[in-house]
Amino acid sequence: MSTVLVTGATDGLGRALATRLAGDGVTVVAHAHARSEERGREALAELLDGPGDVRLVVGDLASLSEVRALADQVPDRLDVLVNNAGIGFAEARAESEDGYELRFAVNYLAGFLLASLLRDRLAASAPG
């Protein structure tokens, strides 16, 4: 069976996808933002209703050091990464912990870094 990491799995499209995958018996690694860990635990309870194995990982994608820590929480076997998490636009400019524009940090840098950190695990699971 496949193992899938879904970032932003606590609500919206990410939660719907994680719920569907868990219902199909897929092993789901569900990401919750550090500030919404409680919501992540609520989502996890819902996901556990399916036949799949579900695990919660927590990390703030606005911090590159937390993205690295998030990658360390992911199991060695990983077949699919769904970089779903993101934030929308706001009127005022905000910066990430690392000094980048917040939306750029979360929507682009975090996903790229996470994919780079997990590349070897994903490649090891690839057919062929």
Numbering strands along the chain, what is their spatial order in the largest sheet? 3-2-1-4
Low-confidence stretches: none
Helix content: 40-55%
Q: How far is it from the N-terminal to the C-terminal residue, by CA?
A: 17 Å
| Percentage of β-strand residues | 5-15%
Structure report:
The longest helix is centred in the last third of the chain and has 24 residues, at 102-125. The protein starts with a strand and ends with a helix. Helix 2 (37-47) links the parallel strand 2 (27-32) and strand 3. Strands 3-2-1-4 form a 4-stranded parallel sheet, with helices on both faces. It has 128 residues and is α/β, with parallel strands linked by helices. The radius of gyration is 14 Å and the shape is globular. The protein is built from 4 helices and 4 strands.
Features of the shown structure:
4-stranded parallel sheet, 128 residues, 4 helices, globular, alpha/beta
Task: Please describe the topology of this protein.
Layout: E1 3-6, H1 12-23, E2 27-32, H2 37-47, E3 54-58, H3 64-73, E4 80-82, H4 102-125
Parallel strand pairs: 1-2, 1-4, 2-3
Helix pairs in contact: 3-4
Summarize this structure briefly:
This protein is an alpha/beta fold. It contains four helices and four strands, in the order βαβαβαβα.
